[in-house]
Structure formats: structure tokens, C-alpha cells
Amino acid sequence: QWQQVRSQLRAEVGDTAYGTWLKPLDLNELDGDRVVITVPTQFMRDWVVAHYADRIRTIWAGLNPAVRSIALNVRPAGAPAPAAPPPEPAPAAVAPEPRSEAVDGTLDDLGARLDPRFTFESFVVGKPNEFAVAAAEKVATSPKPAFNPLFLYGGVGLGKTHLMHAIAWRLKQCDPSRRVVYLSAEKFMYQFIRALRSKDTMSFKELFRSTDVLMVDDVQFISGKDSTQEEFFHTFNALIDRGRQIVISADRSPSDLNGLEERIRSRLAWGLVADIHPTTYELRLGILQSKAEQLAVDIPLRVIEFLASRITSNVRELEGALNRIVHHSTLSKRPISIEVAQDVLKDVLRAADRRVTIEEIQKAVVDHFGVKLADMSSARRARAVARPRQVAMYLAKQLTPRSLPEIGRKFGGRDHTTVMHAVRQIEKLSAEDPQLADDLEVVRRKLQA
Ligand code: ADP
Ligand code: MG
Fold first, then answer.
1. Where does the chain bind ATP (predicted)?
2. Which residue segments constitute the domains of the chain, with CATH numbers given?
3. Reduced to 3 states, what is the DSSP secondary structure of residue 389?
4. Is 155 helix (H, G, I), strand (E, B) or coil?
5. 3-state secondary structure of 300
6. Which residue has the least CA distance to atom 18 on ligand 1?
7. For burial by CB atoms within 10 Å, which of 34, 150, 184, 414 has the most?
């Protein structure tokens, strides 16, 4: 009977959740109307009671109406335990930690180190990021949660990690007694999995819940990772309930975090959502000037302008380009000039020039599918034009750093949910339809040639 209950549970909750939470349960006693199930740890017991107890009861009652009560007890230490299930499909993407840390260590072990260069003082503010910076400063200087959570999002290399470190430094400065933990979502997952393996989720949970400010970077990483998502969500709720501040970053908005449960997505958007937009020419100029100052090198304004106009992708690439020029000129003892810049950055500039625009994508799609350019922005809904339009939106999302609203604007002022829908639709269809997958590949190759 217990086997039947188990296999039914497994079918209902899926292999991952089953392996993590239900497989370790043991039937300890079946005595007339009373069932006693044992669980390895208190943490698991709480979890199972909260999430699965009703199902277990119902299934059991269906199989054996005599059963009246079901008790879940924590297995005493030393009692035989089943082999630990792998909590997730092999976490291949998880880099090995440099040193071994115990989960039952201190809060310092929990977080990642903060980069001393990433402060508010070194962060250059401009139109694209001023809102995010203001929100970050507010959180960093308020003794009580200002908005909970603060959700920062933006494309790669636009300063999310920098801003999070800046918040952490400022918080520590304002009140050194506050327990601030900053870590990547990847590290969160890694620690959680390790706690599961060592059956020590209790101290994992307690440690996280004892923080005053929890900052989790790149939360998109836990998309699709079900049990990590669950644990993250519970930690999140527990902290919010206790009035602790939470700061989250991601490469996209909460509503665009596919692979994250709906209730988590909506909860993430409860506080303040602040996005960091792609850089403008002015901001790039400002950042280059500030970096040149930090490096204590004189760089002709013309070179700075040249870089700001040519390297537009993100701040990380911009910094990298500047560093290369400075190194090169120091080594070769050539003064910095546009010629030197062109020479040193040949590859980067060529790549930057090759970067595809939305207009080029539209043109390539129109050519390939034999529709009119006007159809890209028209309101026509006939499949023959709507599908190519969706393909173009999809490719725009894939191949350019443009945001959903920006893409929507280039397609006759459609709003970002329409673009999102197109992206999802094409993702789904191309997985099922080899002809469409082929079309995508052809257009993509033509654009990137
Ligand atoms: P993200 O986490 O969004 O991918 P990072 O925070 O790692 O980006 O930023 C990439 C690099 O660009 C870092 O070295 C950071 O210091 C720098 N950077 C980004 N935005 C700014 C800015 N507004 N002012 C100064 N430096 C910036
Ligand atoms: Mg980052």
C-alpha cells in the first residue's frame, strides 16, 4: 500500500520534487487506522507537512478507508535512513567552490566577497540608470526596508552587480551590526543542494533567515530549477514577513522570468522594480572619463569620444576596451591616439560593427518570407504576415540587446507583452516544426554573415 501511495505521489508531483521531498519518507508503522511516517529532518518534515500532507492523506484514504490518522515524525538520529536522492539533475553548471565551507559556518561564509571597487562613489549616474541608483541608495540608507523587495534588472554588463555591491558596502558603513548577505543565485543553489546532501537543511534555513538584508544576484539562474526555486521562495517569504530587506537582480523583468513559477514572479514584483537601460552616448562618455581618472592616465578627449561612439554594447566591453588601450600604450610606449585605438581594438570594433540592428532583421525576414516591409508594423493579423512578424520580433530579442518595449516600438508600436508572446510562440513552434527551425537558421546565418 505504501508503495502505491508513493507511486501515485510521484506521478502527481513529478520526479524532481518527489526525489527531493517524498522519496526519503519511510513508513514506520501501519497499525489499524494509524499510519506513522518518518522523515530524516525537521526541515523536511515542515516542508512535507506544509506541501504534501493533504495529498498523502487523500491518497491513503482512497486506498484504505480504514486509515484515520497519519503522523509525520522526525526519524531519530542513528535510525536507518534511505540513500540520499540526488536533489536536482546533475548541477553541471555549478562551478566548484574554491574552498570548502560548511553550511553551518557563519554568515560570512554564506555570502560572496564584495568587490572594493564597486561602490556608489565609482558608479557613474546617467539617464539610463538614475532611477535604479536612486532606489539602490534609498535601500542602502534606510534602517527599515524601503521597498521590499528591490528588484533590479537590466542586460549584461550594465552595472547590476556593481550596484548590489554598492548597496552592501553602504549598508555596512551606515550600520556595521546589520547582517548583510550578498550572493549569486547560483551560489544559493549550490549551498542549498549541499545542505540537502548532508541532510543539513535546517542550519541552511536558519542561517539564511537570520540575515537582516539578503541580496541575491542573477536570480534568472534558478529558472527551471524547481526545488531551489521553492527554497528560495520560502526564504524570501520568511524574510519579508520578518521585515528584513531583500534585494534581487536579474537580466530581465519579473514577468519575463520564464521558468519561474507564477506566484514567485508576481511576488518578486511586489516591491519596487527598477530597470537599468542600455547606455547612452553621454553615459558612456562619463564612464570613460571616470575610469581614465581612476587609472590616472591622460586620454585625449577625441579617443574617449571615439570609444563612446563605437563601443555601445555594454559597460563591461567599454571598460575592457579602455584597459586594453592603456596597457598597450604603456607597453609599447606609444601615446594614446585614435590610430592606436583602432589598431588595438580591431577585433572588438569589427564585432561591434557587425552587430545586427532591428531594421536589418526586419529586412532579412521580409526577404526570406516574401512579405512587405510595411507588414512588420501593420496591424494585419493574417497568419501569412503575422508569423514572419513574430519571427522578426523573436530574432530581434535573440540578436540585439534591445528590450521588449524597444522592440515593440519598432514593430508599429506594439507593447512588450505582444513581443513577449511572439518570442514564446516562436520558441515553442520552432521546437515542434522543423521547417520553421530551418527558416530561423537561414535568416540568422544571413544576418550574421
Ligand atoms: P552586470 O552585473 O549588470 O552584468 P556589472 O555590475 O558586472 O554588470 O558591470 C560590469 C562592469 O561595468 C563593472 O566593472 C562595473 O564596475 C562597470 N559599470 C557598469 N555600469 C557602470 C557605471 N554606471 N559606472 C561605472 N562603472 C560601471
Ligand atoms: Mg552581474
1. 157, 159-161
2. 2-74 (3.30.300.180), 107-276 (3.40.50.300), 281-353 (1.10.8.60), 358-448 (1.10.1750.10)
3. helix
4. coil
5. coil
6. 159
7. 150
Burial class of residue 11, CB neighbours in 10 A (0-12, 13-18, 19+): exposed
Location of C-alpha cell 552587480: 161
Specify the long-range contacts of residues 264-269, CB closer than 8 Å, at least 24 apart: 264/229, 264/232, 264/233, 264/236, 267/233, 267/236, 267/237, 268/149, 268/151, 268/219, 269/151
Atom of ligand 1 nearest to the CA of 156: 4
CA R_g for the chain: 27
Cell numbers at residue 360, please?
Answer: 536589418
Q: How big is the CA angle at 265 (ends 264 and 267), to the nearest 5 degrees?
A: 65
Sheet containing 150-154: give its strands across: 180-184, 213-217, 245-250, 150-154, 272-276
Query: What pLDDT digit, counting tens, does each position of 78-106 carry?
Result: 554 444 443 333 333 333 333 333 333 45
Ligand 1 site: residues with CB under 6 angstroms? 118, 122-124, 129, 154, 156-162, 287, 315-316, 319
What amino acid is encoded at 288 in this protein? L
Ligand nearest to the CA of 289: 1
Question: What is the ipTM, given to two decimal places?
Answer: 0.99
pLDDT tens-place string over residues 226-285: 889 999 999 999 999 999 999 999 999 998 898 899 999 999 999 999 999 989 999 999
Which residue type occupies 254?
P
- The DSSP code sequence of 230-265 is HHHHHHHHHHHHTT-EEEEEESS-GGG-TTS-HHHH
Ligand 1 mutation pick, 118, 316, 318, 403, max ligand atoms within 8 A of CB? 316
pTM for the full predicted model: 0.64
Angle at 135 between CA 134 and CA 137, to 5 degrees: 65
